[in-house]
Amino acid sequence: GAVVSQHPSRVICKSGTSVKIECRSLDFQATTMFWYRQFPKQSLMLMATSNEGSKATYEQGVEKDKFLINHASLTLSTLTVTSAHPEDSSFYICSARDYRDTEAFFGQGTRLTVV
Amino acid sequence: GESVGLHLPTLSVQEGDNSIINCAYSNSASDYFIWYKQESGKGPQFIIDIRSNMDKRQGQRVTVLLNKTVKHLSLQIAATQPGDSAVYFCAETDSANTGNQFYFGTGTSLTVIP
């Protein structure tokens, strides 16, 4: 299947700083990318959907000013957690979808720890 | 969102036995479903998919059953192996929706006992 690369895999940051997570589709053009958040022993919760060249659509309850999403090209989307707090510590996973395909491919996830 | 999971059911099976993992979805408009396997610290991995115009689909050692009447999916794993130990999620999407978002079910943690 197609490859989605997510970077970094782990990051530790201080409270109040911002962290950027990158999601790249390596062998296909991803017109749509999705960002999920996962707490331990829980399911993946969709945070937002981003379409290349347009603003992201956020799920209800997700603060768009806190979780900035930029889908600047057909192969790259970034999620920036601004002014991070310990409660933002979580596993963040991106997913990318080729317009020709119905399947969504997932990155390997980013473990964010805010101290 | 759609189905939101707050608990993670567990299932333990003996190596070599068959496993059945169930999933209930909530959106009657969902027409495409995928089963994913997630190992600890990793992203979900595609296992098998099914469209709403089918009620059964088979892969290698896996079978997915779809019951649209009761909005229920199941994943059957034949001759379960230790490498099958992981968390399994079903994901649903309404492909007529321009967002084409996938929403995940609660998930089930499968442990295979050697």
**Uncertain ranges of chain B:** 1-6
The percent of residues in helical segments of chain B reads under 10%
Shape of chain B: globular
* Poorly predicted parts of chain A: none
| Count of helix runs of chain B | 0
Q: Give the largest chain-chain interface (CB within 8 Å).
A: A-B, 29 and 31 residues
**Structural class estimated from helices and strands of chain B:** mainly beta
- Give the beta-strand count of chain A: 11
Mean pLDDT of chain B: 90
Major sheet size, sense and barrel closure of chain A: 7 strands, mixed
Portion in strands of chain A: over 45%
Average pLDDT of chain A, rounded to a whole number, is 92
* Dominant shape of chain A: globular
Task: Let me know the largest β-sheet of chain B.
Answer: 6 strands, mixed
> Percent helix among the residues of chain A?
under 10%
Quick one: how many beta strands of chain B? Answer: 10
Query: What is the radius of gyration of chain B?
Result: 14 Å
State the separation between the terminal residues of chain A, measured CA to CA.
Answer: 36 Å
Description:
The complex is a heterodimer of chains A (115) and B (114). With 115 residues, chain A is mainly β. Chain A is 0% helix and 55% strand. Chain A starts with a strand and ends with a strand. Chain B is mostly beta strands and 114 residues long. Chain B has strands at 10-14, 19-24, 32-38, 45-51, 56-58, 62-67, 72-77, 86-93, 103-104, 108-113. In chain B, strands 1, 3, 4, 8, 9 and 10 form a 6-stranded mixed sheet that branches. In chain B, strands 2-7-6-5 form a 4-stranded antiparallel sheet, with no helix packed on it. Chain B is globular, with a radius of gyration of 14 Å. Chain B starts with 9 loop residues before the first strand and ends with a strand. The interface between A and B is medium-sized, with 29 and 31 residues.
